[in-house]
């Protein structure tokens, strides 16, 4: 009765009413399909990202202590340039100890890979690993540089691309700002694969910048039994970048 009244009031014919009903049903189907597609896309976006990661030591004769690689959320930073280093960064940068950083990152929900090189990463050598990031969208990397007082290779919260592909990232060297760069053998780890001089008086005696900053590099000298540094300037110097990271997003 109501439909007949509406038809009469609006002067709508049966054919016109059928066309309206068909159009309404078509629009309903389109909306449902669109909602389903959106749901599928959201589901795909929440799936874990699988990454293959390779970190290459790009220096001539600088060594990396065990690497720490962490996938984490945007509000997490293992370090930040221009800020004071945490105790965990200090332990890594001065002695190669990544245990504190690993615990710190893990406690934030990060996915952590420790020591993918199974020890020291030599010049020109790559360490490879794979990681499942879940819904985490940032990547950070750290390792101490040898020989340095408190130098480290670092990557701070790199945004993981959502699009599958292979990406290359260049990593710089940082100074933790926690120890004077005196470049004396007594002030840094002494692994057997590094030849130190003796009798240096010290390049620096105090910390000149107590915030995390780009490392100025070793000064060194060529006097094996004196001079200002115990580091051989013909061997243990570098320019940035010190590492190349290749990330394949699957």
From TrEMBL:
Stretches assigned to the Spondin domain: 63-180
Lineage top rank: taxon: Bacteria
Pfam families from the UniProt entry: Spond_N
Gene3D superfamilies: F-spondin domain
Protein name: Spondin domain-containing protein
Species whose genome carries this gene: Photobacterium profundum 3TCK
């Amino acid at each position: 009765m109501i439909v007949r009244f509406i038809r009469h009031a609006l002067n709508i014919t049966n054919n016109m009413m059928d066309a309206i009903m068909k159009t309404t049903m078509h629009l309903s189907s389109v909306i449902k399909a669109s909602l389903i597609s959106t749901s599928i896309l959201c589901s795909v976006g929440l799936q874990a990202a699988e990454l293959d990661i390779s970190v290459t030591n790009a220096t001539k004769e600088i060594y990396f202590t065990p690497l720490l690689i962490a996938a984490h959320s945007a509000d997490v930073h293992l370090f930040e340039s221009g800020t004071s280093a945490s105790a965990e960064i200090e332990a890594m940068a001065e002695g190669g100890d990544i245990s504190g950083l690993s615990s710190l990152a893990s406690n934030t929900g990060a996915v952590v890979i420790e020591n993918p090189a199974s020890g020291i990463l030599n010049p020109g050598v790559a360490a490879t690993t794979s990681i499942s990031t879940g819904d985490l969208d940032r990547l950070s990397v750290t390792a101490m540089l040898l020989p340095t007082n408190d130098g480290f290779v670092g990557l701070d919260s790199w945004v993981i691309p959502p699009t599958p592909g292979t990406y290359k990232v260049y990593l710089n060297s940082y100074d933790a700002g926690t120890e004077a760069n005196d470049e004396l053998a007594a002030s840094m780890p002494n692994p057997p694969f590094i030849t130190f001089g003796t009798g240096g008086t010290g390049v620096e005696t105090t910390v000149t910048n107590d915030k995390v900053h780009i490392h100025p590099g070793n000064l060194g000298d060529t006097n094996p039994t004196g001079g200002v540094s115990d580091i051989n300037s013909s061997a243990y110097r570098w320019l940035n970048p010190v590492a190349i990271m290749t990330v394949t997003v699957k």
